[in-house]
Amino acid sequence: MNVFSADVALAIARLGLLILLGWFLAHRSWVGPHARQPLMRLGLWVFFPAMIFDRVSSNPLIHSGPTALLYLGAGFLMIIVGILVGRAVAALFRFPPGDAKRTFAYASGINNFGYLGIPVTAALFDQDVVGVLLVHNVGVEAAVWTFGVAFLSGAPPGKSLKQLAQPMTVALAVALAINFAGLGETTAIHFAGQFCHTIGECAIPIGTILTGIYLHETLQGFKFIADARVSFGVMAVRWLVMPVILLSVACWFIPDPALRKVMMVQAAMPAGIFTFLIVELYKGDVSVALRVAVVTVVFCPIITPLWLYVGSRWLGL
């Protein structure tokens, strides 16, 4: 497997160009703040659920309940471990107790599992592995909105369970039921899958452009060289500790070949871009979350291919 292929380079370049396009649209005031919420709703309620249904409903790799639970559980546990690693690194770097410390652990512990993870996975593997990634990602979403939000805000995890009743989780449940029932290749489901495929193709580009729009508003006055503690801390979490943990687990404890491929890609991902929006919603330290995202994304064209190469050799892919 050639992780330095043109397809991987193009996936990373497309992410950067789409973010830049969103930033440019906001800079020119062609898309203002009033457009953010409608675009966000389209992504969460239409584009991403359609993409999940398309990739999961007839995916032969998701052939049983235990298999799907393995994929969901791996995503859920990945985020819990990531946040706990972020907390440990924050303690090592002597972050003062409070919002900044919790925000750093939350933001550094969540990787870019979707906007970059999906196109990189598609560039390296077939669509069935992408389907496994999407199931894995719903487990990630569940951890982000339950354990993650509880950690960030100090609220009990039970109060965050209502966040799971979202279109993406509903689309996953329906698609899994169809898959388990063996109906994925029927005429009606095949038509629905094709229809959802057309809609779902909008998910990644629109979501990434929206990221650029948000970044234009939040990067005002941003200084890259400030707060070295956050910058070096997130490098330790995302470029060293988490890749080693994920690749070690994939190598020694995961027999499923598709999930091993997904975890290899996840190990190479930068921090999540959208985490600063959740941090803002729950009154965390937005400047810390923003710095975590920007530092890792800027160096993504170098670090991501390197960890993909190391991971492919480590796992024998």
Q: What can you tell me about this protein's structure?
A:
This protein is mostly helical and 317 residues long. The chain has one domain (6-315): Na+/H+ antiporter like fold. The protein is built from 14 helices and no strands. It has helices at residues 6-27, 36-56, 65-92, 99-109, 117-124, 127-153, 167-180, 187-200, 203-218, 228-253, 257-267, 275-281, 286-298, 300-315. The model has no long low-confidence stretch (mean pLDDT 85).
Characteristics of this structure?
317 residues, mainly alpha, Na+/H+ antiporter like fold, 14 helices, 0% strand
The biggest sheet, with number of strands, parallel, antiparallel or mixed sense and barrel status, is: none
In whole angstroms, the N-to-C terminal distance is 6 Å
CATH topology, what is it called?
Na+/H+ antiporter like fold
Number of strands: 0
CATH class category: Mainly Alpha
**Envelope shape:** globular
Our Rg estimate from Cα atoms comes to 19 Å
Q: What is the correct CATH architecture?
A: Up-down Bundle
Beta-strand share of residues: under 5%
Tell me roughly what share of residues is in helical segments.
over 70%
Low-confidence stretches: none
User: How many domains, in number, for the residues?
Assistant: 1
How many separate helices?
Answer: 14
The helix/strand class is mainly alpha
